[in-house]
Amino acid sequence: MMGYLLVLYIIMVVLSDVLLCTWIPSTTTLWYFQGLDAVNSYKLPGWLAYLFTFLGTFASIVPINMYVCLEIVNFVQGRYINWDLNMYDPQTDTPAKCRTGSLVAEIGQITHVFSDKTGTLTNNEMRLVSLSTGESTYGFSAPSLKNEEVTDDEVQVQVDRNEQINPPRIPVKEMFRDLLEDCTKNPKVDLLLTALAICHTVVIDFDLDGKIQYNAEGPDEEALVTAAAELGVRLTATDGSKYTIETRDGTSTEVEVLGVNKFSSDRKRMSVVVRNTSTEEYFLFIKGADNVIYELPRDQPIAPDAQERLDDDLQAFSLCGLRTLLIGFRKLNEKDVNCWMDSFEKATKEIGNQRSIALDAAASFIERNIEILGVTGIEDALQEGVPEAIKMIRDGGIKLWVLTGDKIQTAINIALSAQIMDSTMTRILLDEHDPDLLKFQVKRILVGLAEVQQDLLEDEEGENTQGIDPEHLLGQTYHTREEDVQLLKKVVGPELA
């Protein structure tokens, strides 16, 4: 095809040159030239000058072939992507669809892949698989690793990826059989389930068959409310600010929701203040991240042995790749409730940033002296084929970054399960919140990397060489002040300062 285009190109250039040389002499007598003789300003003969002009004018005809071929190749490759059975999802009857053919050729140029976890690597179909009251653990869980040594340089994690990250789909009642047996003996279990059935923003709808459907802001809320219902504490109605809770013995209790202290990325918790319409008692139910709930002010500290048991269960759930939440409650008096409601109502009338500040202040007033009821572990299973796909990405030399809001242990185990990293890798943790301490942590890591690189150089040369001076590397990265050095000695030891 290229040969045909080249012949056409030569014909067009020669023909245009001949026609122009034939036409030019006839233009000297045209009236708009005012009878002036045409003056040849070219140093070359006219026909040769015109020849070079047309060579440049029609030169673009040759590369068009490349564009045409490229578009055809992209189109065909896009069709192959659409027809690829490995990219077909039989569950949803959804094939791959190439929407932009011009991007097909760029697939081979990818060097980095950035992904979030929930809904991308996972199914975003959550379910409650573990519960703990501190005294007892129910459902699916891993053994406690409280005796396992964990260091900053490498977190020792021992998990069975197939069984712990994606536990078998056992019905909730069967999974929590022990919990159902303990409900009659341990009132704390019923109170924990009641908290799950009340502390949320779920709205009830009914399907065509009259069955209850829970519509939640997030799948984790829906998972908790659904699990509580299957375990005998069932949310049966949401009428405005009133919830109806039905227990396993068939009795119904109505509670009025006086206010919701909503979840935010800064608060990392949510709580509801409710009134039991039968007993006129007031309660606060709360759920959130363990570090946040632990730090809430309280008159009496949590018993060390109770907190240790909860921490063990939190760590065990996290090492299974489960999303963990602490659940708590507080019995309120009418005076505190009225005081909180006044500040809460005033806060809702504020505008702009002042509104969120006032709402946080109102929530902080009531969210204190919390009694911990237990820990929940929610599973969000990996999508089918994720580990294999990620392994192929890694084998192709592509760097993969995954963003998640999970605890460190949870993130590490999901990364192991999804083949984002393997057990042979050295794990480097940056887990400090203070900027100065984080800088020192980075320095420490750089020193270790420099020492490893120096050892490799010595091994390659077979003799002791100067290699790389770790302090020189740090000097290039940070300009350390004397006060930084003194603080560094306190934090990471004088040998690394």
Automatic annotation (TrEMBL):
Coiled-coil boundaries: none
One GO term of the biological process aspect: phospholipid translocation
Keywords on record: Membrane, Transmembrane, Transmembrane helix
Entry keyword annotation includes Lipid metabolism: no
Keyword Secreted: no
One Gene Ontology MF term: ATPase-coupled intramembrane lipid transporter activity
One Pfam family it belongs to: Cation_ATPase
Cellular localisation: Membrane
Transmembrane segments: 6-26, 47-68
Matches recorded under PROSITE patterns: ATPASE_E1_E2
GO cellular component entries: plasma membrane
Listed InterPro entries: ATPase_P-typ_cyto_dom_N, ATPase_P-typ_P_site, HAD-like_sf, HAD_sf
Protein name: P-type phospholipid transporter
Organism annotation: Mucochytrium quahogii
Lineage: Eukaryota, Sar, Stramenopiles, Bigyra, Labyrinthulomycetes
